[in-house]
Design goal:
Elements lengths: L1 H32 L11 H20 L1 H8 L3 H6 L8 H8 L5 H23 L7 H24 L24 H22 L4
């Protein structure tokens, strides 16, 4: 009975988190279909907010809610790591670059960075064991986080907007249109959150 009572808070937070993720995804889809994130030639404020707000809200909930922090600490590090495998899809950036649909200043570093993290994710997860070599795990997660931040930054700087100082004849406008707009508005902040969770787990010695 005591074990059941102790797992109820975690289960309720998990269910609420899953519901929020679903609503978040549906809002990203709706906003994409309505053209909310296609900001050219205006500053890409909606796209930027969509990428930053979820990470900020996660940090706030993690720092202020003991129940949410308990749920986060209960997540399987292997699953969090394997989830990064989808980033091999970054090859799409390179393909679009080859077809002249995305600028190289964005597509090349973002594409190869995602591919590198995606390919190594199963390897990192496979060799996870106690005690895990925390330095390797930390470096991998930091690099994965930096790749996401760099991709978003280059995407903004290469956009056909007032802040697009790296924009040329080809811009990143396509990243604000469905379905690619789901990457910066949902998948990038979600995967960044997974990296932050993994780093937090290691810092607390719960890996």
């Amino acid at each position: 009975m005591a074990h059941t009572l102790s797992t109820q808070p975690t289960n309720s937070v998990r269910n609420l988190t899953l519901a929020i993720l679903l609503v978040w995804f549906l809002l990203a889809v709706a906003g994409s279909l309505l053209g909310v994130f296609d900001s050219e030639p205006r500053p890409p404020l909606p796209l930027g907010l969509a990428a930053v707000i979820p990470v900020t809200l996660f940090a706030f909930c993690y720092l202020t809610s003991a129940r949410f922090q308990e749920f986060v600490m209960s997540l399987d590090l292997r699953i969090l790591t394997v989830a990064q495998t989808w980033r091999v899809g970054g090859i799409v950036f390179l393909i679009l670059y080859q077809h002249g649909a995305l600028p190289g200043v964005f597509a090349i570093p973002a594409g190869w960075g995602d591919i590198a993290i995606g390919i190594t994710a199963p390897v990192v997860a496979w060799y996870w064991k106690r005690p895990f070599p925390s330095k390797t795990f930390i470096v991998w997660n930091v690099l994965g986080s930096l790749d996401l931040v760099m991709a978003v930054s280059l995407g903004v700087l290469a956009s056909a907007t007032p802040v697009g100082v790296l924009a040329g004849d080809v811009t990143t406008r396509l990243m604000g249109q469905f379905p690619l707009s789901l990457i910066p508005t949902f998948f990038v902040p979600l995967l960044l959150i997974l990296h932050l969770i993994s780093l937090s787990r290691v810092r607390k010695g719960l890996a």
